[in-house]
Design goal:
The chain contains 6 helices and 9 strands. By secondary structure, it is α/β, with parallel strands linked by helices. Strands 1, 2, 3, 4, 5, 6, 7, 8 and 9 form a 9-stranded mixed sheet that branches. Strand 4 and strand 5 form a beta hairpin. Helix 1 runs antiparallel to helix 2 and helix 2 packs parallel to helix 3. 42% of the residues are buried.
Length: 190
């Protein structure tokens, strides 16, 4: 069962305000995501007692915007990638790409800016567990309470690190109190 750790400080609140303000441009969104990710991953590493071998695994696309901030917190980390998404029509989880390093003794931290229903993060964790990872964490900026509950379903997920939990039940793939489509906001493409 995953332990959920809410990391909330004045700095994370400041970055959250910037991330949620859709009137701000791409540069502000990127800078705020960098800053909040650095704080969140630093907190995760402190909680995990700074494991020596870290693999950062962003979920493509939104999670890519978290990589530089995570590397600022853990400069020696290895980076893998998982391409996975929820089909907007059927709600099915579709994996289209994965490349992760050898798992021997490493802790994987999945990077996903937002966990709504939890399906894509759980799908990415399934990919890692199938590759042999036994120590998997999820680092997310905003998550629904229900999404955090879904992440408890996979025994390999030991921790969920989040800056804000939305108690409202999510609609499929969205949070009422979320960041919008992080990939589109990061890269300017839908």
């Amino acid at each position: 069962m995953a332990s959920t750790s809410v990391y909330s400080t004045a700095s994370t609140a400041h970055y959250l305000d910037q991330l949620k303000d859709t009137s701000r441009g791409r540069a502000t969104f990127r800078d705020a995501l960098f800053g909040i990710t650095t704080l969140l991953v630093s907190h995760a590493l402190h909680t995990l007692e700074d494991p020596a071998e870290i693999v950062l695994v962003p979920i493509i696309r939104g999670g890519l915007g978290m990589v530089d901030g995570a590397l600022a917190a853990s400069p020696g980390a290895t980076v893998g990638h998982v391409g996975i998404y929820r089909d907007r029509t059927t709600g099915d989880i579709i994996e289209y790409y994965s490349r992760v390093p050898d798992f021997s003794g490493q802790t994987a931290i999945i990077l996903d800016p937002m966990v709504a229903s939890g399906g894509t993060a759980l799908g990415a964790a399934d990919v890692l567990a199938s590759a042999g990872y036994e120590s998997i964490c999820v680092a997310t900026v905003v998550a629904s309470e229900a999404g955090c509950g879904v992440l408890d379903e996979l025994p390999a997920i030991s921790h969920v690190f989040v800056c804000e939990i939305d108690a409202e039940p999510p609609e499929i793939g969205t949070l009422r109190n979320g960041l919008g489509d992080a990939g589109a906001r990061l890269y300017g493409t839908a």
